[in-house]
Design goal:
The protein is of the alpha/beta class and 206 residues long. 45% of the residues lie in helices and 18% in strands. Helix 5 runs antiparallel to helix 8. It is globular.
Length: 206
């Protein structure tokens, strides 16, 4: 099971919580995109079992993302993490689980791997589990949660990523509308992509 996470020195404590929840699972191969040199040095020294990837690695064949002007780090992250997903898929040629570093596994991570294999997905993600003001929240932040996305290594997932990256590169924004539908971060685009791509599955909340 290939987990693709990411962190900076500012989010390191949350990443370490994620790491603590998966470190004893021998089926997990952990990849980490390091947003700064400090976090790279720390992980290289303290965690020997993860494979570290730098922003320079991603930028090597994606110079346009380096030259793009971003309003804040969150917009940059939304663009870079998808470039990272594509980079890693093509590098290892195996499925990956793209995971936000504030996620914590309360059970074996491989259960998630078994689930996406069972549904035979090229791409898979879950809905937000909004409880209050569901429609308002969906309009603001999207129906689906981009904090976890499974990408199989196949043509469908590569096509999905290509379109996803283009949308985020051209239109990513962290602003929301008071009324109507927002284009928030990299989440609301999933609603369009699920309609125009093949073999995209929704993971149900248990």
């Amino acid at each position: 099971m290939n987990i693709a996470a990411y962190t900076s020195k500012y989010y390191l404590p949350t990443f370490l919580s994620l790491y603590d929840s998966i470190k004893n699972d021998k089926t997990v191969k952990l990849f980490v995109l390091c947003y700064d040199e400090e976090v790279k040095k720390f992980l290289k020294k303290k965690i020997k079992t993860c494979s570290l990837i730098t922003t320079k690695d991603i930028e090597f064949k994606n110079t346009e993302i380096k030259n793009k002007k971003y309003n804040n780090f969150n917009e940059m992250h939304g663009v870079y993490r998808l470039a990272y997903a594509e980079y890693l898929l093509k590098k290892i040629k195996k499925p990956i689980h793209l995971i936000d570093s504030d996620i914590f596994f309360f059970d074996k991570p491989n259960l998630l791997n078994e689930l996406v294999r069972k549904i035979k997905a090229s791409v898979a993600f879950a809905k937000h589990n909004y409880f209050f003001n569901k429609k308002i929240m969906e309009n603001k932040y999207g129906i689906y949660n981009a904090g976890y996305i499974y990408f199989n290594y196949d043509q469908n997932s590569l096509n999905f990523l290509k379109k996803y990256r283009k949308l985020c590169f051209n239109f990513i924004s962290w602003e929301t509308k008071k009324h109507g539908k927002s284009n928030f971060a990299d989440q609301t685009y999933l609603e369009k992509l699920i309609k125009i791509n093949k073999n995209v599955k929704i993971i149900n909340h248990s």
